[in-house]
Amino acid sequence: MIEKIRWYMEEQHMAGPGSRIVVGVSGGADSICLLHVLALLAPSFQWKLAVVHVNHLIRREAGEDAAYVEETCRQLGVSFYLTEVDVEALAKSRGLSVEEAGRQVRYRAFYEAAESFGADRIAVAHNRNDRAETLLFHMFRGTGLDGMASIRPVRDNIIRPLLCVGREEIEQWLREKNIRWCIDKSNDTDTYTRNKIRRHILPFAKEEICPEADAHLSQEAELLALTADFVGRRAQEALDRCRLLEEASDGSAGPEKARARVGNQQECRPSPVKRIRIAVPAFLQEEKLLQTHLLRLVLKELSGGGKDIGMSHIRDVESLFYKQGGKRVMLPYGLEALRSFGEVIVQERKPAAAALAGTEEEVPAAHFFQKIDMEELAGNIGDTQNAAPVLTLACGGGKILEFSLFRRENSQIIPQKTCTKWFDYDRIESLVLRTRQPGDYLSINDKLQKKRLKDYLIQEKIPVQERENLLLLADGSHILWVVGHRISSAVKVTDSTKRVLRVHIRGGEEDG
């Protein structure tokens, strides 16, 4: 296995002679294997190693894992960096999943240790099975070629030497070397979506379809990564053919005042506004595949990475090329796309920028945003509904929303009223009253299937002119209540609910 990993690292140009490598080590089988393998290879390449261990302060045995990793580093003569962060608290404060918050904490710790150690590489322990699971995860959620490329062996200064070996091979090697590893019991639960793929879907595929399913999926991810790189290069060439720049004279956005990015470039300059303009005739001449990836590049550039940009957003922008001027779509990251004469413009949304700056007088009524203080609510919880203090919030039009929090009694009946709704408070991480944003969704049934807010509003035949002003009670992109309409099934009060959040519209009609 050592030679296989060595060959793979050389093939992928992961680390040259004399590299200083920071290794992320949780204490699990994969990361312990990675550390020992790199320690064995280090003398041949004059590598210097350091280890980063992140304690998420979630599991009771996490301290024992940290101590084991530190002792292993001492035996190997490797520098050890420890980071401790309350990930659950961080996730709640930032409105993130625990999984995402943990990932952010780990990589921040890796980069900080790399800077301190003077490292030019950061090694993480994803293996072939992880690559297969990620491919399935992205496909199920809906993704393009980049997502199906799954985990890449090298990304910037991040390297993944174990992508060429599977989990069973890793554990077998550790047993042969009599090297123990720590067990993370959370991996044996279905708490995270990836665990469900790991514990149920892939084992079923290996048993019922093909014993080498994980290896084949990893190979497909490798092929898709090469395909994604090829298409990405062609898409960039297509974007260069279609992109328009402002003229130096007046910065006008009209096509009659613009030139394509071919020739006479000394007379053009980028627009002072953060936007990209695409000529419609040139775009429509491109291959369909390149059109999709061209727009992905545009949204990625303007959003600073485009983590939450999905195919639905790309399709929304694409539709503008077939519509008349004046049409507009809202996008994540405070962006919008609009159809003008002979071009489609993707740019920052000025009202959103004003809202972030706190200049409310510059923000139209349609861009309402007000955070509700959950700490204040929790600090004023009542033992009964009648004893719970009420927090009020004016929301325009003479209406006031009243929020109260109380402990549920087993015999309580949940009211079925249009202007009063009950929510399971412990399923909510953040509370904001706002108007709609791209990416909004709600759960529509007991299976917690998601529906885009846009699709729900169309289904309910809510007029287009009313949608921008419709108030929403939201937890991130999860819409808890379309005010005056339905609530999300994910936060309904059940027999297991302990704390109830009651929200009432004063000034509305209790028409059931």
Automatic annotation (TrEMBL):
Pfam families: ATP_bind_3, TilS_C. It is found in: Cytoplasm. The chain crosses the membrane at residues 21-42. The keyword Disulfide bond does not apply. Keywords: ATP-binding, Cytoplasm, Ligase, Membrane, Nucleotide-binding, Transmembrane, Transmembrane helix, tRNA processing. GO terms for molecular function: ATP binding; tRNA(Ile)-lysidine synthase activity. ATP binds at residues 26-31. One of its GO terms (cellular component) is cytoplasm. It comes from the Bacteria. One of its GO terms (biological process) is tRNA modification. Residues 431-503 form the Lysidine-tRNA(Ile) synthetase C-terminal domain. It catalyses: cytidine(34) in tRNA(Ile2) + L-lysine + ATP = lysidine(34) in tRNA(Ile2) + AMP + diphosphate + H(+). Its EC number is 6.3.4.19. The N-terminal region contains the highly conserved SGGXDS motif, predicted to be a P-loop motif involved in ATP binding. Belongs to the tRNA(Ile)-lysidine synthase family. Ligates lysine onto the cytidine present at position 34 of the AUA codon-specific tRNA(Ile) that contains the anticodon CAU, in an ATP-dependent manner. Cytidine is converted to lysidine, thus changing the amino acid specificity of the tRNA from methionine to isoleucine. This is tRNA(Ile)-lysidine synthase. The gene is tilS.
